[in-house]
Amino acid sequence: MLTMWGVFTSLRMLVVVFLLMLFTVKLLIYYIIKNTKNYWEQYSTPHEKTTFFFGNLARVILGRLSMAEYLQIVYNKHKSHRYVGIYQFQKPTLILRDLKLINEITVREFDKFPQHVLYTSEKADPIWAHNLFAMPGNQEWKDLRATLSPAFTSNKLKTLFYLIDKCAQSFTEHLLEKNSLVEVEMKEAFAKLTNDIIASTALGATCNSLKDPHNAIYKMGVNTADIAKFPKNLKFFMNNINTKLTELMKVRFISEEVRVFFQKIIQDSIKMRESTSTFRPDIIQLLMEARKGQLKVDTGADTSLEIAAVSEASETFEEKSAKIEITDDIMTAQAVIFFLAGFDTSSTAMSFAAYELALHPHIQQKLLNEIRNTMGKEGEKLTYQIVTSMKYLDMVVSEVLRKWPPFAVTDRTTVQNYVIQPAAEGELPVPINSDVLCLIPIFAIHRDPEHFPNPEEFNPDRFLGITKRPPGFLPFGSGRRNCIGSRFALLEIKIALIHLLLKFEIVPIEKTPIPIVLSKTNVNPISDRGFWLGLKPRHN
Asked: pTM of the entire structure?
């Protein structure tokens, strides 16, 4: 009897402790929400009304609205303001609308806003924390950026041209094997192409993913690219709930399987090159040279690829001799991020390009005419100079990136307290500290008729005669944290389109999604129903 009473007492105590803990957690959540949800109010900053827990992201998190569409709605709703405040869960977030303000934060005040939001710690995920995109904007990042920049100069791209071109030729030759109309889901097909290009140019590996879709590199690429999709992309939002939570839970974006796989490829490649004195003009070679202190600066870069999309992408650092210690984790981290960028975003841009050309046959024919005229009647062998001389191709690719930017949004966080000074009637000073996230809504800016008239129209002629990046055109970001591989991405997109158009007419089919419905489960703009198109072989 006493034993039963003892058990009952213990159970009652457990219930009491549980209820006390629950009450404490509720108080803590209330305290946090109460103290964060008035951030914009206290500075009279225009802002969106919030909901419990999710802040302003309920429809995005619950899969009712894509991130791109949500930001566009908020952006358009506040046309008279330079910025608008929202809350991503508990995190005060400022959406920047004004181009001058964006330039102030990303360029002029770069030293105060040198980094993206830090999603996890080096201890939790050393591979993600060491990649060029995710690193804090400290001296280590500057040194690594200076180390890698020579890999993406125009002169270096010329040396990689043959490898990219060879992959693109193999891609079209495989599609031609049926010699009839082929219905293709272009995102998957282009992902296999970009996988082979990155494998060849970054890792020194050779594969043909269309013929062998089960090769290890492609499978690992698919695995790695999944971080942008639901539910894995929820990890990106955890930091907005509480920064300590991501540290406590040791959130990882790159799995141990991916780390081990890429690290082995890199180590094997290094051993092979050192034992055979083999030289390849790729990322691994650059990092090997930097590790040995033998990195040479490319001072002879030309500007033939300085098109509208990348006119701001030239290296802006004065640091020319990197002093960073190149560890295995750093080398692996760069391989992973280049795979993410090349595998996913480049293949998405190619898919949108093929889609728009299929829906606009007159543009497709005009582009084909330029390709044929530039290459000559005899089908002159494609070269770097030929690709970069095609002006209309440049306009088409720029318009694809304008209408369908690879990233819906980019961000900046500050390492110093900063105040946005009033510049319009009714504005008050807005303090920005390290707890506040600044968002640049690229997708919304690209669809703003103030910057691009008739923004829903696919019109390459809007880039006619433009040699510098137009105001508001931000497909690769802005300032020193823009995409280091933008020239590489543009080159592979152009080469792929040239080979595809020379061999095929791209046509809509019954499964072609018209109009495009943006995915609710991916943080970046992509079709919810794929990119189904028909490829009709050309016989003339």
From this structure: 0.88
